[in-house]
Automatic annotation (TrEMBL), chain A:
GO terms for biological process: iron-sulfur cluster assembly. The gene is sufD. Residues 120-346 form the SUF system FeS cluster assembly SufBD core domain. It comes from the Bacteria. Pfam families: SUFBD_core. Transmembrane segments: none annotated. It comes from Planobispora rosea. This is Fe-S cluster assembly protein SufD. InterPro entries: Fe-S_cluster_assembly_SufBD, SUF_FeS_clus_asmbl_SufBD_core, SUF_FeS_clus_asmbl_SufBD_sf, SUF_FeS_clus_asmbl_SufD.
Automatic annotation (TrEMBL), chain B:
This is Fe-S cluster assembly protein SufB. NCBIfam families: sufB. Belongs to the iron-sulfur cluster assembly SufBD family. GO terms for biological process: iron-sulfur cluster assembly. Residues 207-441 form the SUF system FeS cluster assembly SufBD core domain. InterPro entries: Fe-S_cluster_assembly_SufBD, SUF_FeS_clus_asmbl_SufB, SUF_FeS_clus_asmbl_SufBD_core, SUF_FeS_clus_asmbl_SufBD_sf, SufBD_N. It holds the Pfam family SufBD_N. Residues 142-204 form the SUF system FeS cluster assembly SufBD N-terminal domain.
């Protein structure tokens, strides 16, 4: 879509590979107004020059091919057109991309883990493509750790009848800045499961999006975040239903504690005129554990057809339920322990959905550590 | 369900207020906005200097502020083609007989004098073009010290009170259209209810635009003093012209400690009116503010009645119902800002889009630091009756306090075949069945309206749904 063609929806107005098509954000724009631009370390205004700060290693399942390719590889950028300034900046600046391919009908026997480790202060731009051919099945883990200023685009291309399960862990050090777009393109009857866990980083802005190229696509986007004092963790989701009889379900839950902890969750769903029989639901819940934290939650819904199977969203923000804690305390469980149990319950149902057992344990123990700290 | 895009069935006599009166005053009025126009309005009204200064400030800020880029498409508004002030009669009437024949006929057709005769309302104001042409309040209320006059008279006769509150809730530069209203305001209602007075039956205002390309900028200021109650009802209509008019009102309401105010609007402008309105109330300790907002007419409506909950235990409530037919965009919603502890707010929004129309719910709930113990519930339901219409939800939530509960829910559904079949098997035709389902859907809001307005709403739904089923 060109820039001059104003799309029907107000939720995603621009898409272009050209950095010049995006003005430097001022913070007044709808899509940037929640993000503290001064903490982006120049990712948004072109002043952050790449200095190669992120090391990529891949541990792949035997059925899967992994390549590191140059920026002119023609498979790249086919599924996703950058939709904002930093995404376009990352697209213009990355040098090497990681391409993971799962051949037709192959079923990956073990998870494929892509580990991205920040080496320190450096600025880095990246690009990742995960492509499942028809009827393939795989589990892919993106594990972000260390410290870096990093912007990247990740494309998930899920072929007809294929099933891709992704876990993306943002387990950065406290000073990391990460701005990322994850785009999934679903073919006919494709299944996509995404699980996002954002814990670390000074500023993380992650924009997962889903589009459909044929009927029957099915996407579940699940997310969990824990925001500490001074952290800004932002998730901006977009599900674009442009094909009939597709399904999407979005559930993001977060907890916030400490002064200046700021969570932003934007959940956009568009149901285009052609997308009859769409079934979609979005849910965001925020648990404010202390004063001084701030949660913004905006579930947007644009529906252009009357023939939907179901559409809705819900958002709730509040503190722990006193009654739950009282119930536990009445049974002799001390307050701190009771509080921990209730928060564990809040996240527990989500964590159970993580495909990889070691990751489940790691996320649970991280959440425990956050609560203890 | 079959596609209902059948133009031959639509738009036939659906809008019954679409006649235009002969229009000498309107034809003579000047188009376009300039400092001269603003000075002229102020001079015609013999206003004090401070009001002129405020108007000029509004004009400056209007020029500076950008057009909103969100919400509806406003590119069709031609500010240079609008008539900013039209005086339809020299003198305000206090009995219907004194009104010029054509204006009197208009209000007869709208049924206003009848309602007054039957004492269904405690006071009436009728605004025609830029100024209020008829005004009446029941004697017993006047004796209790209730002031209900048009805003121009309010400024003349109660300047001190007026100056204290005017622009205190919505500052001059709040947004582009509030600035425009401050520069060009004329008419509207000024209401003051003294402490401990309950106005049992509603005060009512009726707004009508008659001139083509008219801009109506009424300004309403309501002050409900401690432990008092008032219910204000307004209705709006305009003729159908081929080019567009602009209605840009500002409504400021102050609800003091323990008081309660209810503000009901049934907006039924014709489909060539841009309706861009700023409405905001402040509610102090233990006060209750209720907005009941019906948007049925207009080409574009952008209206988000707000309540700023300033005192402990203040309560805000918005009930909103919107219908969008062919060519209409209702971008309506509510804004609740919690600034004090233990405040509560409720928003219930129901919308129906048909015939290619578009309804949007756009809302904000903000819970500021210190507003502990606050609770907010937002529920939006949309009903789609065909495949060519559109329904959007943009609810913003900003919570900065841990000890609160905030919930938002939205559902979008279509009218089910089962419901239709059930009603049709009992002998209703499809149109009637559809209208009945839609009436049931908005019933929770209709029952909050005064009787005659509830009947009017039901009748309007019937008109809107006529030919909706193909």
């Amino acid at each position: 879509m060109g820039l001059n063609e104003k799309p029907l929806s107000t939720l995603h107005e621009k898409a272009s590979y050209e950095l010049a098509d995006f003005a430097v954000p001022t913070g007044r724009e709808e899509e940037w107004r929640f993000t503290p631009l001064s903490r982006l370390k120049g990712l948004h205004d072109g002043t952050a020059a790449a200095s190669g700060g992120v090391n990529v290693t891949v541990e792949a399942a035997p059925e899967v091919t992994v390549e590191t390719v140059g920026r002119d590889d023609e498979r790249l950028g086919k599924a996703y057109v950058p939709a904002d300034r930093i995404s376009a900046q990352a697209y213009a600046a990355f040098e090497k991309a990681t391409v993971v391919t799962v051949p037709r009908e192959a079923v990956a026997s073990t998870p494929t883990t892509i580990t991205l480790t920040g080496a320190g202060d450096g600025v880095a731009y990246g690009h990742t493509l995960v492509k499942l051919e028809a009827m393939a099945e795989a589990v892919v883990v993106l594990d972000h750790r260390g410290s870096a200023v990093y912007a990247d685009n990740v494309e998930f291309v899920v072929g007809d009848g294929a099933t891709l399960k992704v876990v993306s862990l943002q387990d950065w050090a406290d000073d990391a800045v990460h701005v990322s777009h994850h785009h999934a393109q679903l073919g006919k009857d494709a299944t996509f499961r995404s699980f996002v866990v954002t814990l670390g980083g000074d500023l993380v802005r992650l924009s997962p999006s889903v589009s459909y190229t044929a009927p029957g696509g099915d996407a579940d986007l699940t997310g969990l975040y824990f925001v500490d004092a001074g952290q800004h963790l932002e998730h901006r989701l977009l599900v674009d239903h442009s094909q009939p009889n597709c399904r999407s379900n979005v559930v993001y839950k977060g907890a916030l504690q400490g002064d200046g902890a700021h969570a932003v969750w934007i959940g956009d769903v568009i149901i285009q005129v052609e997308a009859e029989g769409t079934d979609t639901y979005e849910l965001n819940r925020n648990l404010l554990l202390t004063d001084g934290a701030r949660a913004d939650s905006v579930p947007n819904l644009e529906i252009l057809t009357g023939e939907v199977a179901g559409a809705g969203h819900a958002s709730a923000s509040g503190r722990l339920d006193d009654e739950h804690i009282f119930y536990l305390q009445a049974r002799g469980i001390p307050f701190d322990e009771a509080r921990r149990l209730v928060i564990r319950g809040f996240f527990g149902q989500l964590i159970e959905k993580i495909e990889v057992e070691e990751l489940r344990d790691r996320v649970m123990s991280k959440v425990e550590a956050e609560l203890a700290g | 369900m079959t596609v209902t895009d059948r133009p031959e069935l639509e738009g036939l006599g659906n809008y019954k207020f679409g006649w235009a009166d002969s229009d000498a005053a309107g034809a003579a009025a000047k188009r376009g906005l300039s400092e001269e126009v603003v000075r002229n309005i102020s001079a015609l009204k013999n206003e004090p200097e401070w009001m002129l200064d405020l108007r000029l400030k509004g004009l400056r800020l209007f020029g500076k502020k950008p057009m909103p880029t969100w919400g509806s498409d406003l590119s069709g508004i031609d500010f240079d083609n609008i008539k900013y002030f039209v005086r339809s009669t020299e003198k305000q009437a206090t009995s219907w007989e004194e009104l010029p024949e054509d204006i009197k006929n208009t209000y007869d057709k709208l049924g206003i004098p009848e309602a007054e005769k039957q004492r269904l309302i405690a006071g009436v104001a009728a605004q025609y073009e830029s100024e209020v042409v008829y005004h009446k309040i029941r004697e017993d209320l006047e004796e209790k010290g209730v002031i209900f006059v048009d805003t121009d008279t309010g400024l003349r006769e109660h300047e001190e009170l007026f100056k204290e509150y005017f622009g205190s809730v919505i500052p001059v530069g709040d947004n582009k259209f509030a600035a425009l209203n401050t520069a060009t305001w004329s008419g509207g209602s000024f209401i003051y209810v003294p402490p401990n007075v309950t106005v049992e039956i509603p005060l009512q205002a009726y707004f009508r635009i008659n001139t083509e390309n008219m801009g109506q900028f009424e300004r309403t200021l309501i002050i409900v003093d401690e432990n008092s109650y008032v219910h204000y009802v307004e209705g709006c209509t305009a003729p159908i012209y081929s080019s567009d008019s602009l209605h840009s009102a500002v409504v400021e309401i102050i609800v003091k400690k323990g008081a309660r105010c209810r503000y009901t609007t049934i907006q039924n402008w014709s489909n060539n009116v841009y309706n861009l309105v700023t409405k905001r109330a402040v509610a102090y300790e233990g006060a209750t503010m209720e907005w009941i907002d019906g948007n049925i007419g207009s080409k574009v409506t952008m209206k988000y009645p707000a309540v700023y909950l300033m005192g402990e235990h203040a309560k805000g409530e918005t009930l909103s119902v919107a219908f969008a037919g062919e060519g209409q965009h209702q971008d309506a919603g509510a804004k609740m800002v919690h600034l004090a502890p233990n405040t509560s707010s409720t928003v219930i929004s129901k919308s129906v889009a048909r015939g290619g129309g578009r309804t949007s719910y756009r809302g904000l709930v903000q819970i500021e630091e210190g507003a502990h113990g606050s609770a907010s519930t937002v529920k939006c339901d949309a009903l789609l009756v065909d495949q060519i219409s559109r329904s959007d939800t943009y609810p913003y939530v900003d919570v900065r306090e841990d000890d609160v509960s905030m919930g938002h829910e939205a559902t979008v559904s279509k009218v089910s075949e089962d419901q239709l079949f059930y009603l049709m098997s009992r002998g209703l035709d499809e149109d009637e069945a559809m209208a009945m389902i839609v009436r049931g859907f908005v019933e929770p809001i209709a029952r909050e309206l005064p009787m005659e307005y509830a009947l009017e709403l039901n009748r309007l739904i019937e008109l809107q749904m006529e030919g909706a089923v193909g």
